[in-house]
Amino acid sequence: MDKNKIKVILLVAGEGTRLRPYTLDRPKCMVEINGISLIDRQLAVLKSESLEDIVMIGGYKSDMLKREGMKLKINTRYHETNMLWTLFCAEEELEGDVIISYGDIVYSRDILKALLSSKADIAVTIDTKWESYWRARNEDPLDDAETLKLRDDGSISEIGQKPKTIGEIEGQYMGLMKFSSKGIKQVKDLFHAACNNNKILSKAPENAYMTDLLQALIKAGKPVQSVLIDKSWIEVDTVDDLKSDVTLKRCNDCLLYTSPSPRDS
Hints:
Radius of gyration: 17 Å
Distance between the termini: 21 Å
Low-confidence stretches: 260-265
Number of strands: 13
Strand content: 15-25%
Mean pLDDT: 92
Structural class: alpha/beta
Oligomer: single chain
Strand order of the largest sheet: 5-4-1-6-11-8-12
Shape: globular
């Protein structure tokens, strides 16, 4: 993939109700860690790899998301829809090679490089060392975790279901993925078929998550390839996440692998 031709779409429409009172006056992605917002941390990582074609899809308090040189699209129904619907509020941007990322995560340059190096039509970053991080965030690591099963070739056979045991989780989905133009066509075809049937898996398209999309692609026989990572990253969903020493340490770990090296200058 030519990095100069890759588009990045950031899903940043959410209110972040579990982060109140910190999201009463700002979108979830603009909550700050050490004075720097989640979205600005992510933008710094993207720019460290010269990814400049960036589209944000906002909703809640979207005026605060405006950045010079970046497109801002709006999901006007952000309060009653989920991630997949937000993505298709900018369907005209779904062309060519595309990275799609949640706005409430921060990851390192090394993780981004691993994703960029994948040649798969649909590539999804998967944290193989997820369990220690989830145990630090939740008394029960199965809380807020999702199933993830891999085939021998590294492709994903199941994603996004509610697990009953740790054994059903071979890695954890981050909310960071890359699609080739072929992969994007598969996504669009599936979404429009789901709209015609008013169902993607067992949900209405308006209520579907990105993991529902990925599982539906898998069910349709489309290869969804994992990009296995073991570097630090963070997801900020709750006030406990925001205030956690683990979050701060992992956020600092991300920075170690973000700044361009002298040979990149």
